[in-house]
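Complex record, two chains
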Amino acid sequence: MAQIYNFSAGPAVLPVSVVHQVQSELVSYKNSGMSIMEISHRSSLYTDMEAEAEENLRKLMRIPAEYDVLFLQGGGTLQFAMVPLNLAKGNNQVGYIDSGHWAQRAIEEAQLVPKIKTDVVASAASTNYTTLPEVPKLKKQYDYIHLTLNNTIEGTMYRKLPENLKHQLLVGDMSSNIMAQRYNVEDFGLIYAGAQKNIGPAGMTVVIVKHELLDDKLELPAMLSYVKQAAKHSALNTPPVFAIYVAGLVFKWLLEQGGVEEMQKRNEKKAELLYNYLDSSSLFNAPVTKDARSLTNIPFVTGNAELDQRFIADAQESGLVNLKGHRSVGGMRASLYNAFPFEGVQKLIEFMERFEQSVGGNR
Amino acid sequence: MAQIYNFSAGPAVLPVSVVHQVQSELVSYKNSGMSIMEISHRSSLYTDMEAEAEENLRKLMRIPAEYDVLFLQGGGTLQFAMVPLNLAKGNNQVGYIDSGHWAQRAIEEAQLVPKIKTDVVASAASTNYTTLPEVPKLKKQYDYIHLTLNNTIEGTMYRKLPENLKHQLLVGDMSSNIMAQRYNVEDFGLIYAGAQKNIGPAGMTVVIVKHELLDDKLELPAMLSYVKQAAKHSALNTPPVFAIYVAGLVFKWLLEQGGVEEMQKRNEKKAELLYNYLDSSSLFNAPVTKDARSLTNIPFVTGNAELDQRFIADAQESGLVNLKGHRSVGGMRASLYNAFPFEGVQKLIEFMERFEQSVGGNR
């Protein structure tokens, strides 16, 4: 079949060479006669693989030794509950930045955790989330402030952290832009990211947490406790072996490609190409303000819902797949994660130009 | 490399044809140009696959329509907490049968859920778990009684449900013997099983729950709520696509082989062969009483820890791998799940006979 380009927001495109390696060694992992799906998580086959994955992730993100790296299950949504369960202490007063749909889901889930008091300290509701929220000077000290670094649906992203969040303990949801650009891990108390966007297959969540924040007197069910998971190196029970394995291959691929700096360069180039086209097009339009634009998720519209639908269907037929925007906002979205190739963006723009011509350049 | 036989208790051996199918279609699932790891969980590629997996599981286990089937994350250990979080109502008094290590872990986790009162209504501690607990007539009505159908570490299994548990709402942990023999789903309010033993790769947990038990007014974080997961068909957030896909292939394979009855026949034949040998051996010994023996997990010892170690190492070298017993009990364990072939048991017995001769048949 013809080459396709997969713009899915997640699960998303993986590096071609990684998919081929998984295939080639699927039946016998490291010549063991067993598939990676069949190996015991108490064997050195597993523990060596897991240790290498963690080591490479530490290199890529420059994670200091005083941070634990956990490979958990349940996606970002379970983290929405685990963060307040584990990190709310003292007055249980926690602050959230409402930057879009997933930030709101994080707030809703925190509100379902007993005794937690959530303050929304900033919101971009007034611009319908086409900007990032203005974060004011905070008068209180919170147990933590939760920040969604990249808003997958709305297409906004913090290229830099808000000034007024300094001196607060930051929890960062990096699900859709982890390792898409350099962040300083030490600016955060905890970082989490579902793997299925910019890391690997669905079914694994990376949590990076400063060890001193973990309270070993906290009585939580084991699977909900960072300190218990950290004590068992994420193998408190059977870990999601296959997902960790593929993520490990992606980490190795990232290092071989030149690491996070190189990814950032490539992502900036890919995103710039598409934003420049969108800003010059008389048909397509990027709703997000220039200073808030995401590197990894780029929503765009024609302004005509029917035309949007036709575009999505025609693009799909031409091998440009999964360009439909999230159901909550409509329109189109191109997700340009680390593994998404530059030529895919070129093909998309060529297709958009032809489409624009075919409809006369007018909405 | 030479053929190996994988006796791992989990992650465990998968059907050879399933592993090969995963390999052959890994780069382009259903000719989509995308790997199964790259497809969106909102696409029909995913929803069709998930629906077929569920349908086949319903056929295999004869699951009535009034039960929800959920494909979750977090393994049995998260279920240890989710069961009391979701099913303890009214007096919050719940009963547990202490049949071994994993039953004890279920109790410990339930005790970490606020407001739950756990009663251990029966225990096999006095026989060091080489028997199943005698369940007395219960005087109280409990919100539920939790039963571990197969004790993976100790090698005991309920071939029939205890008489005195009738008229109680039963929660069954079938992690290591789901579909190894026929159980009647209607005898249970809820059944759960981590996939990585008798179903598929690690990272997916099957939950089968009677819909009327779910309370949609219960305010739990989404990932911990059966009713919220059921409302979204297990796709409340990104599900573990790859693990569900492989489990679905295993379900199809089970149907092709003749379903649960055929598996039970094969498992009985495999287990009988090994138990008969163990009972006749002058070196090896099966510690579990005959009426409590598991079909899927068969522990055995020589009575000499050093000799056990030598046996495990020699067997490993001969391609009989992962025979080491759980660290908490020592000795050996052969896990003979559905996908484990009859000839593997023959090879093991041949090897044990040779080993027995080589050490002179004496301990």
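Note: The two ends of chain A are 34 Å apart (CA to CA).
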